[in-house]
Amino acid sequence: MRKVIVIEHPLIQHKLTLIRDKNTGPKEFRELVDEVSTLMAYEVTRDLPLQEVEIETPIQRGKFKVIAGKNLGIVPILRAGLGMLDGVLNLIPTAKVGHVGLYRDPETLEAIEYYCKMPIDVAERDLIIVDPMLATGGSASMAIQFVKRENPRSIKFMCLIAAPEGIDRLKQDHPDVNIFTAAIDHKLNDHAYIVPGLGDAGDRLYGTK
Ligand code: PRP
Ligand code: URA
Question: If we measure between CA atoms, which residue out of 127, 111, 133 comes closest to residue 181?
Answer without folding.
Answer: 133
